[in-house]
User: Which sequence fits this backbone?
């Protein structure tokens, strides 16, 4: 008895594996882009907070400015 899987060539399986790896890399890249965008937006929002709001979250204006000055790719 023959199964449909008997007709799949090794080349086809290698193509599927390659496609899966590419998809995995693209998914990881999308995750990085999302985190970087959120981090950048959060740092910009820090600059809009007044002294009282910064005090409420337990930070100072200097600390907020230092955090906002970091590049988006740094934690």
Assistant:
């Amino acid at each position: 008895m023959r199964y449909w899987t008997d007709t799949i060539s090794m080349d086809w399986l290698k193509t599927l594996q390659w496609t899966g790896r590419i998809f995995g890399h693209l998914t990881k890249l999308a995750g990085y882009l999302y985190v970087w965008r959120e981090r950048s937006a959060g740092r910009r929002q820090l600059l809009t907070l007044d002294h009282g709001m910064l005090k409420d979250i337990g930070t100072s204006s200097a600390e907020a400015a230092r955090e906002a000055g970091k590049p988006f790719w740094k934690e």
